[in-house]
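Case study 2.
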Amino acid sequence: LRGKEFHISLYTMNFQEIGSETLASEVVLANDFSSFMKSIRKTADTLFHQRKGSEESLYGIAVVTPGIVEDNEILRYSLFNDSWGRNIPVKKYFQDTFPTAQYIFVENIGKMAGLGTIASRKNQDQLLRVVTVYTYHGISGCFFDNKNLIRGANSIIGEFGHMVIDPQSVATCKCGKNGCFESLTRNDTIQSRIQHAEDIDEFLNFAQKPLAKINFNDIVLGEEQGFECCKNELSILAQYFAQTFFNISTVYDPDVFILQGNFSVYNHHFEDEFFKYISEINFLSKNHNIRLESDRRSLIDLELSGAIYALKEHFFSDERIYR
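Prediction:
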């Protein structure tokens, strides 16, 4: 579940795609979660018909969704439909709807995308501490140690988009605070900061977009064309990222941060400003080297890769298959 669409894919145990379907926003925004599940069941039937016996031999289901997920079972709240309520027992719904499935788990999109990145790196960073940073409508991420996802006492771990960076900011967040990392880097906040720049009209003419459509990628392209408003904005954004990553480092101190999604398209100017800010922090030694990398694959591909990886890991950890 991402944006206002729900993507459903069916794979073989060799992880070859059998088929894929997408439910449109009017289905995702149905009146209640039970109606939504009926639409999922109907769509899944279309996929099952493409491979005889696929439902009877269904091994596992990975449900990937925005929001805070607890114990791989419960969605604490929905970002898209208030009528769904809170504390939705998503796993139970899927168990009732797909009784032949042997294994079902529910996870946050950021964590699945993180697994997708880690799974693709093969032997890279296998002994390193890694933080993946998921950037789309919001910002979240996850922590890995030796490719193992670190979990906390509750499901809020990795929601560092809600780390307050500038409490005096007028940028509000759905979490109820002002100046969160996520709210400071949203498109509408970026637009607000650049709207009165001297070269804003020239930049918008270059971008061929109204101000309300400008995003981070446009800012990167504008900076590379020499627009001062974009250069200044990239510097501000780089400093927000650097401060947030430093805050994370005081708790976990990873070897590498890997950006995914919208902000993965950062350029050299962003990177230079990021490390300039880091270098000015007195607590860090000169040889302290925070690595900043990007995974520019589509978020859907990363989420799907992570879900397949998690299902595969569960399957091969089942002792029954070795008897």
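The two ends are 37 Å apart (CA to CA).
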